[in-house]
Amino acid sequence: MKRPPALVITGPGTNRDPDVAFALETAGADPTIRLASELAADPSPLHHAALVVVAGGFSYGDALGAGRLLALDLSVALGDPLRSAVDRGAPMIGICNGFQVLTRAGLLPGSLGHNAGGGFVCDWVRLDPVSGSRSVWTSGLDAEIHCPIAHGEGRFVHPDPDGLVANGQVALRYASRNPNGSVDDIAGVCDEGGLVLGLMPHPENHVLTRQHPVLDSEAARPHLGLAIFEAGVKHVVAA
Amino acid sequence: MPPSLRLTITAVARDPRTEALQAAGEQLGIVVPDGLGVADVIYLRAALDEVSQTRLTDLLVDPLLQNGTWDAPGDHGIEVTPLPGVTDAEAAAVLVAARTLGIEVEAAVTGRRITFAAATSDEVARRFVERVVANPVVETWTFGPADPPLSPPDDLRHPAERIAVTSLSDDDLAALSVERGLALDPEELAVIRAHFTAEGREPTDVELETLAQTWSEHCAHKTFRAVIDTENGERAPLLRQLRECTEEIDAPFVRSAFVGNAGVVEYVAGTTIALKAETHNHPSAIEPFGGANTGVGGVIRDVLGIAHRPIAVTDILCFGPRDLDLEAIPQGALHPLRISEGVVDGVADYGNKIGLPTVAGAVLYDPAYTTNPLVFAGCIGTAEGWTSHDGPHPGDRVIVLGGRTGRDGIRGATFSSATMDATTGEVAGASVQIGDPITEKLLIDALVGAEDLFTAITDCGAGGLSSAVGEMAEGVGADVDLDWVPIKYAGLEPWEIWLSEAQERMVIAVAPAQIASMRERCDRFGVEFSDIGEFTGTGRLVVRCAGETVVDLDTRFLHDGRPQRRLPADLPRPVRTEVARHVDDPGAALLELLAHPNLRSRADIIHRYDHEIRGTTLVRPITGVERDAPADGVVLAEPRDGHGIAIGIGVNPWHGLADPERMGWGVVDEAIRNVVAVGADPDRISLLDNFSFGDPRRRSTMGDLVASVDGCVSASRAFAAPFVSGKDSLNNEYTASDGSRHAVPPTLVITAVAHVPDVERTITPRLRTSGNALVLLGTTRAEFAGSHLDMIRPHRGDIGCTPAPDTRAPQRYRALHAAILAGEVAACHDLSEGGLALAAAEMCIAGRLGARLDTLGHEDVTVGLFSESMGRLLVEVAPEHVDSFLDRFGSDASMIGAVTNDGHLSLVGDSIPVDALVAAHTGGAR
Fold first, then answer.
1. Residue among B89, B100, B608 minimizing CB distance to A73
2. pLDDT at residue number B31
3. Is residue A202 annotated as a catalytic residue, yes or no?
4. Annotated catalytic, A96?
5. Which ipTM score applies to this complex?
6. What are the residues whose beta carbons fall under 8 Å from the beta carbon of B785, sequence distance 6 or more?
7. pLDDT tens-digit readout, B448-487
8. Domains plus CATH for chain A?
9. Which of A158, A202, A212, A223 is catalytic?
10. Domain closes at, from B746, B762, B778
């Protein structure tokens, strides 16, 4: 079976692009990493992508607020091709900084503020896939996802979290202690169509069972972050 | 000129920064009433119409999180802004964003606005800002709205100055050295005078500064290259001793040792590992965040400077006590709390943003570090198919990549080669740099994979271009023009451009045929590329500026002209007899040790570092089911590899105070023990040395240094683990206003980087299964000098000795490794500070299981529990493996107890709930 092409979009300071490329490859996709500035000059990889990822990191060093400057680049230069990718049904995921970018770019609801604890936190969390979510990236998932977080601006805020829940847009909740003060323990949200997912944690860093800090191989397997990428790939392969 | 404007941005909900500031103030005893506020301010010079103003507001203010106003505030509040010339990445981002939006902004500065509750007196507000918020080394602050300069300074290009030295007396030369901060000694000044007398001319200020940087302790390692005079006769230079030891060991995996920016080893054919650790002590003392931040940035560039991709960062930090009375801090020094918070933030900021896991490390507290904090930053990198670059060749271009040059970090090499006093912060302000990790990230992106496009590479660190170009030009010669160096702002003098230590710059040599490809690659990643001249083949270093020749030096004189230094040393005569201790309440003592600032859980610091990025960290710096227990070493492995790399640290300045030679052995043993404990191969270990000592011109300090080198060299030989790189930082002393001198204790940090043959066989201290046996490896003796038991229960009278070298340790570690590969080891922990009691407690904490110790490896309970004898480990072994495990060690192993599920650690008669161990280890003051 042909591997669906996945485009990983980066900006200056994006740093988890190799990690997510490895996750996509393991999940059965064929990833390509491209800078937003390169795509502005030649958007064809975006036209051909079956899956689109905005990777994590510190684009522009979080200057002026995490994700804002890369979101500006995307909106100014790539706003139309990004929307048309979603319109033709390509699942899109923004992880950590990518989540921040997609909220600022208006592709996802809500916003991400400084952690309630005041600083950057790196730790492992357990994520509960929310049943009834319309996200294609968590479709079919029921076991908890275990993976690390690493962010300073991950407090999800939204004026109407109940509305998001009712609309099936809350895809993931923190099952372990809420690490950043996000409203309603929300770790990941999707757009109204369910194709675009944003989440603060890093499922791309739990692709192999040996990456789990506590559980042995057999026990870790059901909780791999890989499952999210596999769900994305499955969606496009089935379509 | 367009008008100046300001946008003030406040959080809609409470801003978490206010609580952090308030708490920091309270810890220093500066209590401000509730109602503290923090806002961000962006100062602009721009003519904005209404539409532009709205678009900028939409970008800069997130309505779900923030409020923004273009109105000027009232006179209350204090505004903190960066001093002119200090890196202001946010302001640079404003300009980038404005350009993207098509809005013309001429200049931008960003700052913070602190507002206080009405009840706060100006005096308290001032003190709070001065002590908690702002740092006068890089920032200025004002009551009421600030008005930072928003126009570039005039271009006042000063010509180079000629400095008359040929006619000066020795005294006048010495005065010149002090006046210009050259930090050269009388013999060196005399050689310089003779050189220019022979050339029949006077040096320019640029030449003099170039010589001072190149010959500084920081760059030339004069102490480590000095011949040593002792009462027992002459000793070879310390650096030579370290090198000869490595040559003698002749390990097959060493590819490059003690040359270039970092050591290079090859454990798996085709894959090389570059390793380096640096110190950034003086800068961290006066500007903790920037000092630590650029320390990390600098050591990453060292690895990049030997054409390896950086993969991980390490940090070892030494601070004064965090609870020190504010009044006890000497004039001009920062409080340890401020230093430690700033340093940790600085390390985290750089590592997190550049995208490297910050892994192995240590944090030590001692009053002696109050005015001399130590910051050791390390980096390791990997490459496939690495060969060392053979350039530069005559005709190659001199290319500067990365950040622009400003007045930041002027004379850093000479600054760090001097001792500090109360005025250091003021006079050395320009020596401090603020890092920009994103610019360095882009450098990595551009350089890794482009190795075929250049013929030589080095980083721009201490001494700036003068060191980088000067070192590359050694023997070849170069001709460069400072007019082509991109600068941050006008008004720099030639010597300032040449010496600036502005961060995030690399210098490469590129053959003319590759220039276009290299430039294209840099453009793609947004890295500034500047061709500033040529490597010539003349052997002379020529520097031009504005049509004038400002340097014309023979590179042989620059690099080899320095006179050989001789240093006298008084060797220490430590006590070497064993003296026991006695505590009546070992359980209580253990809980005190677990809570001791040096031994308590580091989880709170480690959670501030991204140690998960790259998905390669398999054994983390914190371990256990609740991730709050220490690891011995860390293990990294690329996702597709079945093998990995272990990193371990050894450091113990308290042993160094009592017996520097034994300390030297002990810290090598500790670093090696740490990597073997997690699964590394004891026959494939490489070492880095980092010495931070006081002023080596004091004979006793020099003697301590000589003894510690003796110790670590003999350990290196015994373990057949070669040193491949190192760095010394001397003169870690502070002269108080009363003239008293405060030096750091002898601090030698050893970093071990080792091969892990099988990542499925890595081990942590986490206890696994009730009923498993606990086996103690090694021999316990009454060795308590410099022990942590002595810190909590001071000992009167004869302190006895520090732990002696254990010559059976190499054999023991090989046997342990074989047992690990055979799958016989369930958990393992090294015994170091706090001895067996602490190790057992940490294993219980990691596994949240109990343990029972029936015997202690020594007939005396206090010795058995708390002695810090070398070479020991505590191992958990399943019953079915006990016999074969014990067989490997003979008399070197003893079964001392078992893992239990009763939730208690039982120590021959004393029983402590594991919950109490956890509470002591993780609660309370850090």
1. B100
2. 86
3. yes
4. yes
5. 0.96
6. B574, B575, B655, B658, B659, B799, B800, B801, B802
7. 999 999 999 999 888 899 999 999 999 899 999 999 999 8
8. 5-238 (3.40.50.880)
9. A202
10. B762
